[in-house]
């Protein structure tokens, strides 16, 4: 049986991450540590995964700078920017640290930390909008034919929703996603319409989930 092999990859550490900023859709470069992480990831992918046939990336700089070294060994593959792979827009919090946010919006931040009920951040992307974006993105990625190897570089916040969409969940699960973490799914294209195959794990395989072992050992 042949599969569509889909790798979702979180970008490496950015300068905003290093400063604990809520970057959202602001576009910041990688930190020096992030550049090192990307090189470690590139070596791992070369040794342990099939060469990509397609590479998609969020257009934000930290994602593009992560993608570039990954596909450098594959001159026939170009980075295709996809707006739907962007991080969630953070509204009035975008670009701020939590300390800065609490200083500017103390009452609203107090409300956020005292309830599990969803409180929309002013000017931010709503969770419903993010979920719709994740569903659309998952649909587009899964349209690739069997034998394609698709890499998609995105962001920790959005990837939680995208993974839920790929897995067919009816809710988004919180996942602490590490820098350059790899999620690898194998999808048996053409088997979705057979009702029994929905429950056949041979058709839908998780090969890697939140894998960051390349940051610990040099493979």
Give an account of the 3D structure.
This protein has 219 residues and is α/β, with parallel strands linked by helices. It is 34% helix and 16% strand. It contains seven helices and six strands. The model has no long low-confidence stretch (mean pLDDT 95).
Could you name the key traits of this structure?
219 residues
Task: Please give a quick description of this structure.
The chain has about 220 residues and is α/β, with parallel strands linked by helices. Helices cover about 35% and strands about 15% of the residues.
Layout of helices and strands:
Layout: E1 4-10, H1 15-18, H2 32-48, E2 54-57, H3 61-71, E3 79-81, H4 98-104, H5 106-112, H6 127-142, E4 149-154, H7 156-167, E5 182-187, E6 204-211
Parallel strand pairs: 1-4, 2-3, 2-4
Antiparallel strand pairs: 1-5, 5-6
Q: Uncertain spans, ≥5 residues at pLDDT below 50?
A: none
Secondary-structure element series? EHHEHEHHHEHEE
Count of helices?
Answer: 7
> How big is the Rg?
18 Å
The termini sit apart by 29 Å
